[in-house]
Specification:
single chain, 159 residues, alpha+beta, two-stranded parallel sheet, 5 strands, 16% strand, DNA-binding
DNA sequence: GACGATAGCCCTT
DNA sequence: AAGGGCTATCGTC
């Protein structure tokens, strides 16, 4: 088992990424008890670039087999949401042929791999909805992506 | 059975 | 127009 760690300026948090056979868990910690950066895995580099404002699609395999079938379906569907896009809880439910809108929210709350499984891109129909790591962080992530997208568009228009 | 990271309706100010 | 109460819905615990 490997644990990678680096500091994210935008979030003002350390990011701890645990690998087993595949990507196992991602956690954010505020205070580093003299944590030193340690990066050995491709996904960790991708995450660093993500936080720098690059438009990144994550490639790694993901360990979620310990979760219920429903939760796995929700998270797999969430994974398909493209960078900078958002979906509502009910739209996501519809995609997996369910009307359990609130159960979707509950499943997302158990997401062991935030960012890589972009649960911050699932929002309420009228408003932001919740986020297990605090709505503040959700907002910051969505803003990061919005900026990255508009920056990219303005670069395209330069030529 | 109760509880949600929901949503829609209906009522009041 | 904004906010509060009520209810349908359904997967977890």
């Amino acid at each position: 088992m490997i644990v990678d760690i680096f500091f994210s300026k935008v979030l003002n948090h350390y990011v701890e990424i645990e690998y087993g056979d595949a990507l196992r868990s991602i956690r954010f910690v505020r205070i580093g008890k003299n944590l030193k950066q340690q990066i050995s895995h491709k996904t960790s580099y991708e995450m660093m670039r993500y936080f720098e404002g690059e438009i990144v699609e994550f490639s790694s395999d993901v360990e979620i087999h310990h979760l219920s079938p429903f939760e796995q379906k929700v998270l797999e569907e969430t994974r398909k949401i493209k960078y900078g896009k958002t979906l509502t809880y009910s739209e996501l439910a519809g995609k997996i042929d369910s009307r359990a809108v609130r159960a979707v929210g509950n499943a997302l709350g158990k997401n062991p791999l935030p960012i890589v499984i972009p649960c911050h891109r699932v929002v309420a129909k009228n408003g932001m909805g919740g986020y297990s790591l605090g709505v503040e962080m959700k907002i910051r992530l969505l803003e990061l992506e919005k900026k990255a997208i508009t920056f990219n568009i303005s670069r395209m228009n330069e030529r």
